[in-house]
Amino acid sequence: MVLGSLLGALVVVACTLFLHPPAWFPSAITLAGQQYDRQFLLTLWVSALIFLIAHLFLISLTLPFRRKVLHPRFEFVWTFIAVLLFSGLALTGTRIWAGVRTDPIPPGAVRVEVLAHQFAWSFRSPGPDGKFGRTALKYVNDPAGNPFGVDPSDPAGRDDVTTATLTVPAGRDIILMLRSRDVIHDFFVRELRLKQDAVPGMDIPYRFRADIPGIYEIACSELCGLGHSQMRSTLAVVREAVR
Amino acid sequence: MLFARNHRTIGLQYFFLSLGSVVLGLVLSLLMRFHLVHPESTLPGVGDIPPELYLAFLTMHGTLMVFFVLTLAPQAAFGNLFLTAQLGTEEMAFPILNMLSFWTTALSLAIMVLAFFATGGGPLSGWTAYPPLSAAGGVAGPGQGAGQTLWLIAIAVFCLATLMSAINFITTTIELRAPGMSLMRMPLTCWNWFITAILSLLAFSVLLPSVLLLLADRLAGTSFFLPSGLLIADQALPNQGGSPLLWEHLFWFFGHPEVYIAILPGMAVVSHVIATFSRRPVFGYRAMVYAALSIGFLGLLVWGHHMFISGINPYSAIAFSVLTLIIAVPSSIKTLNWIATAWGGELRLTTSMLFALGFVSLFITGGLSGLFLGQPVLDQYFHDTTFVVAHFHIIMGVAAIFGIFAATFYWFPLMFGRMLNERLGKLHFYLTFIGAYAIFLPMHFTGFAGNPRRYADLTSFQFLAPLLPIHVWMTDAAYLTAAVQVLFLVNLFWSMKRGAPAVRNPWQATTLEWAQGPVGVVYRGPCDYGVTGTAKDYLMQHEAEPCPKP
Lengths: 243, 550
Prior knowledge:
Oligomer: heterodimer
Largest sheet of chain A: 5 strands, mixed
CATH superfamily of chain B: Cytochrome c oxidase-like, subunit I domain
Number of domains of chain A: 2
Structural class of chain B: mainly alpha
Number of helices of chain B: 14
Low-confidence stretches of chain B: none
Structural class of chain A: alpha+beta
Order of helices and strands of chain A: HHHEEHEEEEEEEE
Largest interface: A-B, 89 and 103 residues
CATH architecture of chain B: Up-down Bundle
CATH topology of chain B: Cytochrome C Oxidase, Chain A
Mean pLDDT of chain B: 95
Largest sheet of chain B: 2 strands, antiparallel
Distance between the termini of chain A: 72 Å
CATH architecture of the largest domain in chain A: Sandwich
Shape of chain B: globular
Strand order of the largest sheet of chain A: 3-2-1-5-8
CATH superfamily of the largest domain in chain A: Cupredoxins -  blue copper proteins
Number of domains of chain B: 1
Shape of chain A: elongated
């Protein structure tokens, strides 16, 4: 009886948390983020339903009435339902993933390089000429504001803009090129519903189009050493000046 | 006695080694919870908890729990204690190897504890030890010097121990079954120890060379996992051409099967405990065997779902995702069969049965959060948040521990000839069940809010501040749940000496470890409960004919 009441209490608490969550996502600022939220809610409903039904079964086990022995056919029915549900989720989820990760990069996208290093973020834009200057390890100089190691002799690099926070125009496609120069870090902005590791030795693209202006926090999400929990920067999404 | 070759003694040695490790791991988790909600407070005897110490706690907690508790207790401890008895044989295939594997494990634990106290600090790169952080050496920060090296050596030694143990389990199961004990008559526990041993053999034989390569990167100047162009703490590293992703692939090729190594034995214990205390045969015995086999097989093919956002090809993420969601099918078959076994039976709610039913509840909850993480698109947000922490603690941590509790209460009469106290046991179950959910249900929600895991403090980000009350709640729940475990320790040590003496087969179970005297020939499968026409409602596996009614 105690077990039954405990399981009952668990179901009540879970339902309450489901209806009145103590913490939640911030609103999404991208179209992909809204698709994300729909897929999340779909998965949440499916799993909440399974949770509820399974626990009602568990509770009824503790109740004092006679239950008929289940027919083995039940197993096939349940397996069939499970396959249907899980492959349905896999399909709808994969469509959104493919849209974000495998669609060709649209022309005219704004390019920004992102460099992660213990324990800060640096961002580089190509400046008016639209070209990134050459970089080399030997030119890296953090105190002098050159974390990327832009070669001073390369004219393409003279107008490159290096910043410690990221500012992007609203409503434009943005391609970030993620890099790290020491250990693995991870670029995470909650409002974009996106997360991507920055791995030393790799250039990893990260694409988004933010529609809602505002300032959002960038958090490192891969353990990178003692300063991991302080590796913060901000993403500012700004309306482009009317030209 | 100390270097015993007897598998029962070795099983008990493993049991107490895990018990010590789980207490250590639990204390470390409390220190972490304390620091998260009181970042400024000092600890008596320790002083300040700087971030590197917090991360060392975290690394050591994960390592102790995954390797020295969840790998050892379900498989090495209970497997050694009861595999041979359940198969109807006297000895493990290789008694000396068995003794060696225990002492190699103990050596590994000693090195691991040493790593924590190494000069330069304990290792802090987590139980996953991703390079370059774990490979670059002391230059990458505190704890990455001698501490990390010792950690890797300890894991390498642990791999050797587990490989020896796995070979022993596999050979014993294949070669030494009693006459008549066909594979399809084996108790599900034997099946899952067998499958787990095969998984251990495959997984740890990949982890061992990987760890050696990482050690070579640290000590011999090789570049397996270190790419060119590294600049750490203003120091350029000479390495060329290695790949951090290579480590992630190798590690998770071990790491994912490891999850099943931790949980498969517990699943089987739960099956038999539910059958015994419902007086019903295991529902779909064959389906359970095939489900365990397919979980084991698929478990080897899904390591990539730990790497959806690591920079792997997005198309391979889709393949890993589909394979991952396929595992949900045999898992849900198992869940259905547990419930179906009890359905229609007359439940005897012993402590062991309570823990088994609690396991089923946790397995459902933890399995369902897997539906989110198995989809790469959703994982883009949840990866490395506390949602993941809640997921694996429920399904791999607490559920597996519930399996261990169920096994301890079930087999205690055979381990010490006495019974555990049921009243104390039930109280312990109720409070632990409430406590586990009180800690880990809210943790899903901090994950929804995007709270990254492995953060030593919650003070640097604006979005983390509103989550503090939830963290305070989880910390308080953790204190209480940990305190409740004292009930179990008291029960365990008191009952070992003073518990009520056990009769031969107190639960009226059918499997051979409960048989009186030598077994002889096996005549039937492991779940003949609810037999009619005899004096008792069950038939043990070595009983040829139903006993006539008196």
